[in-house]
Fold:
Amino acid sequence: PTIEANRLLALEIVKHLEAAQILDRHAGWTEAAIDQVVQQVESRIDERAHGTALRNLAKVLAWAGKLEEAERLARQAAELLGDDAPAHELLALKAATDGDLEAAIRHYHRALEIEPASAKAHNNLANVLRLQGRVEEAIHHYRRTLEIDSTSIFAHNNLGTLYESQGRIKEAVTHFRRTLQIDPENGRAHYYMGNASQSVGKMDEALQHYREALRLLP
Structure:
């Protein structure tokens, strides 16, 4: 759905209409005339609106798992919009998926320079930092996520599992319980609560949470 693709499609439609004798081509319909029309059309394009449209399409493609296409459009959007936080987040997602964690971190940092209050960017940056073993930085960004959005289930679960891996069970449980207050049917939180309860010997409580996790995530 690019401008160039639409131009080519329009020209093909004209050819088919002419072949079907639905229209007669004007004598002035030359390559030079077509180029003039292209210039007129492109001069009326709002680059910012076009960049926003490309970025939104890139988001849809990313949600659909088509990250190669999403990355291409996100780069085009960034060129038209200048620095754009959502475009950098999409580029970070693609980089992380490709295993280029340093590039992902750079893009998330740039997104947060542009939009410091993006809870999603903080949480996703924390996930990548965690993969690199940069635990304290990850904790900082999970906490920052929760300062912006205290109901972020992803951040509560992520921070809880990170605390649990450090043996900080009490702090981990606080976040798992908070998730279950927000969403009592969250199977992952029940599973994490089961792990935390088991690690401190609370077997009956662990069984209860594991059963709930299995009911919700069979």
